[in-house]
């Protein structure tokens, strides 16, 4: 199987903004093992800006564009240093791939991206993808890594996209405020009712980024690719997901007729 796994900053870092070492070590170990079992793995990782904030000892996450872009430039190095070190422990080679919106909107550039990713996978490397935040401007920005990971999954014809986040999956209501909220195990069709779970009543859910996750689900399922939202607190869940067990919320890719 060819899988794309996306991790958000909330999975990679403590609330202090510093690296959650135990979590990231567990993630790299599980992904290495999945690769050892013969699968192809692509990691889409956030955390550049967050790591840059920590590394530069900034008091808070910057709001102005130049400082954000500067923090991303610093943090992306720290991120890749961490992945390089941890994956090397398991004899895997990482490759850094940074994209902007214009790279995936332009057919020729997207084709080059596809070809490079295919070659990297043939060479046995583990591509680590992020948006190129340092040069991203309003006009060319993809803006969030849920959408980016869906675009990556479609471009490389992945079999599965897994979004690891700080919530177990998609709920019928916001589980943080509604005790009746139930996890939805499978979404067969993305209806307006499902979309409303992220944007409407459960607006607090969108702080966990459900809006962009459902957008990612639209992009992947439309292309016939399954997508899972699962809790990144336990990267071992990836084993169960690969075995087809029900973890989190599975969005079924549209069957081609
Ligand atoms: N590209 C951003 C970063 O690495 C994260 C974007 C996102 O989390 O959606 O900091």
Would you identify the regions where 5 or more consecutive residues have pLDDT less than 50? Answer: 200-208
Main β sheet profile: 8 strands, mixed
Ions, cofactors and other bound molecules: glutamic acid
Question: Helical stretch count?
Answer: 10
- Based on secondary structure, the structural category is alpha/beta
What fraction of the residues are assigned to beta strands by DSSP?
Answer: 15-25%
Structure notes:
The chain is an alpha/beta fold. Helix content is 44%, strand content 16%. It contains ten helices and eight strands. The protein has helices spanning 9-12, 21-36, 48-55, 65-89, 101-105, 107-122, 145-155, 192-199, 210-222, 237-242; strands at 2-7, 40-45, 94-99, 126-131, 160-165, 186-187, 226-231, 249-251. An eight-stranded mixed beta sheet has the order 3-4-2-1-5-7-8-6, with helices on both faces. Helix 3 crosses helix 4 and helix 7 (145-155) runs parallel beside helix 9 (210-222). The two termini are 22 Å apart. The model is unreliable at 200-208 (pLDDT under 50). The site of glutamic acid (GLU) has 13 residues, from helix 3 and strand 4.
